[in-house]
Amino acid sequence: MRLVGLDRRGRDAGRIDFAEFVQQRSAALFRTAYVLTGSQDSAEDLLQEALEKACRHWSRVAVADSPEAYVRRIVVDLANDRWRSLRRMGERSHDVERADPRDPYRLVDLRDELVQALHALPIGMRTVVVLHYLHDMGDHEIAETLRISAGSVRSQLARGLAGLRTAVPRPEQPPPTSDGRRTAPLPQFGGA
User: Fold this and answer.
1) For the segment 23-72, what is each residue's pLDDT rounded down to a tens digit?
2) What b-and-e string marks burial along 128-166, b requiring 16 or more CB atoms within 10 Å of the CB?
């Protein structure tokens, strides 16, 4: 991504254009939308709506300290709005994508259980967990993004992780391979 700079005439010489931004950052934004919604179709719709909003206000977004953070905030706000509207209607989103049963990786079932448990969390906790673990954001950065206090971020993260730990059972050690060695241990989400 190019840095914003002024040319000799005072114009934004290095400002990233919208098409370039979409090409470079839409995959990362899609991952955020997917984890927040649990559905590929919903994530695609959410991302499209967020990018449409960003495009309408691109002159303001492009000069932000971080255009990606600005658009990520739009994605989070739209996901929260959708969750609230589903909740008001008394519905829950049950369209969580199922992993392909032919997937050769052993973590598929655990991933599916984790995504389901993540979607059982209230949207605030879910958003904090996603921003912390998927985007590796710190407490203060999340607080600034969500416009809440750093203490609220820490509290929601702790409660969200506790909820995930109780909902997702600890995986068993993988069986040994044909040569008697064990595969790498499974990662533990959020510690003990």
Assistant:
1) 999 999 998 888 888 788 888 999 999 999 999 999 999 888 889 989 99
2) bbbbbbebebebebbbebbebeeeebeebbebbbebbbe
